[in-house]
Amino acid sequence: MRNLGGAIGIALIDTILEQRTKGHADHLIERLQAGDPDAARAVGLPLAQFHNVPLGPIDDLTKAIVAPMVQRAALTMSFNEAWRVIAVLFAVSLLACR
User: Fold this and answer.
1) 58: Cβ–Cβ under 8 A, 6 or more apart, which residues?
2) How far apart are alpha carbons 80 and 64 in whole angstroms?
3) Is 79 left (phi over 0), alpha (psi -120 to 50) or beta?
4) In contact, 55 and 35? CB cutoff 8 Å
5) Angle between helix 2-33 and helix 60-96 axes, rounded to 10 deg
6) C-alpha R_g of the chain
7) Interatomic CA distance for residues 69 and 29, integer angstroms
8) Does pTM surpass 0.70?
9) I need a surface site. Which of 47, 60, 75, 82 has the fewest CB within 10 A?
């Protein structure tokens, strides 16, 4: 049972990381283009350019510089979701053991 539970848990975590990272990255890009300072803070960009006003067209060099930062922030958000799912499943399993 322990091996089966571990395999299912790893598969669940991998699925969350694989499926949710792209969605988080797309959402962060939308928020950054809308000028959201909270998204800029999450990505690690300077807040001076972000005043809740759309930024307009972005050049290719800026996209190349910001893309890895957005990807890292999106992966971090996915890891946070995976940990929350694990915590909830652990709490549910504790209640089921009573």
Assistant:
1) 33, 66
2) 25
3) alpha
4) yes
5) 140
6) 18
7) 11
8) yes
9) 60
First to last CA, the chain: 18
Length of the chain: 98
Is the confidence at residue 98, as pLDDT, over 80?
no
Which pair of tokens denotes residue 10? Answer: 């790893």
Q: What is the CA angle 50-75-60, rounded to 5?
A: 50
Residues 60-93: tens digit of each pLDDT? 999 999 999 999 999 999 999 999 999 998 899 8
User: What's the pLDDT score for residue 6?
Assistant: 86
Rounded alpha-carbon distances, angstroms, from residue 57 to 3, 62, 72, 81? 51, 10, 23, 31
Cα distance between residue 25 and residue 73, in whole Å: 8
Q: How far apart are CA 19 and CA 9, in angstroms?
A: 15
